[in-house]
User: What shape does this take?
Amino acid sequence: MLMRTDPFRELNRFAQQVFDAAPGTWSKPAVMPMDAYREGDEFVACFDLPGVDPGAIELDVERSVLTVKAERRPLPTGDDVRMHVSERPLGVFSRQLFLGDGLDTEHITAHYEAGVLTVRIPVAQQAKPRRVAITTGDGERKKIES
Assistant: This one.
């Protein structure tokens, strides 16, 4: 039921750590870190997007691929502003999740609060566990306790 992520993401992360990390640092943080878990009959994915305007977030579903795209824009600058430190990544960030067939992509909901985008995807009705009736040799249906 859990999604698989982009197979090249780990390779990209490794290359970024090796080639882009500043001297003396071990690694750079992920641009759009995510937690994913199942809660009851829903699959939940939480994306950290601090400093992103809610209007700059796009959430698209095509077939079984959920794409989250967000843009962190630079702070307004003027003639009297001198930047001393600029460590926060800017630009457009994107993350794709490959959803399993057991999820209901028609009823996805999303909520953005305190820099966290929470996406909830219900488990499809046909994927939920159900009890199967067992018939006996005489064709009669009986509830058999297991």
